[in-house]
Design a protein that fits this description.
Number of helices: 6
CATH topology of the largest domain: Immunoglobulin-like
Oligomer: single chain
CATH superfamily of the largest domain: Immunoglobulins
Number of domains: 2
Distance between the termini: 65 Å
CATH class of the largest domain: Mainly Beta
Radius of gyration: 21 Å
Order of helices and strands: HEHEEEEEEEEHEHEHEEH
Number of strands: 13
């Protein structure tokens, strides 16, 4: 294995720290001791300061090793899975991951996901299901920009063909893993992703009250360009603040997204879905888009918005569906489809009554 191949596998698409533990385990040859030592150094350097929700890679010991302890980066690897969900905590979570190496004209492989609670049982999965593939709009780009806080860029997710999503029950904090069985007409591969689950999420979860904050509205600015990086904004999503909407006693569809500056390039399509669903239910539900940055009209030095910080969001985009009592009923991190949002809003509107 050449050095440039190792660097390419572990650095392509995003930082090594965000790749978590990517473990390939189907009869491939382990790296020789020299390259293994180098890979350990690379991982240790890149994972310094890693958040508690993520786990660095570990290499097998001489005895008692299991498949979950083996990291391989063989040259025959076709797809490299990368975890796209950042806020992992106890509860039901919609977990997303992408495939680094999936080419533009290549059909997305079918992926069966087996979930393991590694601290309890590394042999028997808690659940087995097929992940759903959500393709990205290839026309969505990202505008050149800079951040006042350089750590903002650390939330960047890899840009790819799309993401796979699957709902999963995480019933305990600790170490968890997913076995991914990937298959297409001309290839089959297995991969393992290992990650840590916290007791509580960073973002407010479903079942908790929404955070009341005076987000900015269109009455406070001369142009919507000061409120959003959306090139075609829906004025109705900037009419009231989050605090005002929660006092109205109506359900609320709330989106945090930055269409022009979203590294994952999922913000724009997610916001389009939000606009479409809100227009459909505008008589029954309030709608708000909060731009991630306070000054989207100044891309040379972007500053995070007060509302985004108040909601403790570790990534973008996020969409929340909130009932008439101000309680969060659905929380979507990352890519979400119009059909999923419509279903969630329909349920909340029906539950909230006339």
């Amino acid at each position: 294995m050449q050095l440039h191949c190792i660097l390419k596998r572990f650095a392509r698409g995003m930082s090594i720290a965000a790749r978590l533990s990517l473990m390939f385990a189907r009869g491939r040859t382990l790296l020789c001791a020299g390259w293994l030592a180098l890979a350990v150094v690379l991982l240790a350097t890149a994972c310094a300061g890693e958040g508690s929700s993520q786990q660095s890679a570990q290499y097998p010991g001489t005895d008692g090793s299991s498949d979950w302890d083996v990291v391989e980066a063989g040259g025959d690897v076709r797809w490299l899975p990368v975890l796209a969900t950042r806020d992992l905590a106890v509860g039901v979570k919609r977990i997303a991951f992408s495939l680094d190496g999936l080419q533009a004209n290549e059909p997305a492989p079918t992926i069966r996901v087996s979930l393991f609670a590694l601290d309890a049982d590394r042999e028997r999965p808690r659940s087995v299901q097929y992940a759903r593939f959500i393709p990205y709009d290839r026309s969505v780009g990202i505008a050149a920009h800079a951040h006042a806080n350089s750590s903002v860029s650390d939330r960047a997710l890899p840009v790819g063909r799309g993401v796979y999503v699957a709902p999963m029950q995480l019933d305990a904090a600790g170490l968890w893993g997913m076995l991914l069985e990937m298959s297409s007409d001309d290839a089959e591969e297995e991969a393992r992703i290992r990650f840590s689950v916290r007791e509580r999420p960073s973002a407010p979860p479903a079942g908790e009250p929404a955070i009341s904050v005076d987000s900015r509205t269109r009455s406070q600015v001369e142009s919507l360009a000061a409120l959003t990086s959306d090139p075609d904004p829906e004025p109705g999503l900037y009419a009231v603040s989050i605090a005002e909407a929660l006092e109205q006693g109506r359900p609320l569809l709330l989106a945090f997204a930055t269409p022009a500056f979203c590294h994952s390039r999922t913000c724009a399509p997610v916001l389009e879905a939000v606009k479409s669903v809100w227009r459909e239910f505008a008589q029954s539900i309030s709608g708000i888009h909060v731009e991630v940055f306070e000054n989207p009209d100044n891309p040379a030095l972007l500053v995070e918005s007060e509302a985004f910080v108040a909601w403790r969001l570790p990534s973008e985009p996020w969409v929340f569906v909130i009932d008439a009592d101000g309680v969060i009923r659905y929380a979507f991190e990352g890519a979400v489809t119009e059909a999923e949002l419509r279903s969630a809003v329909e349920w909340v509107v029906q539950e909230s009554g006339p």
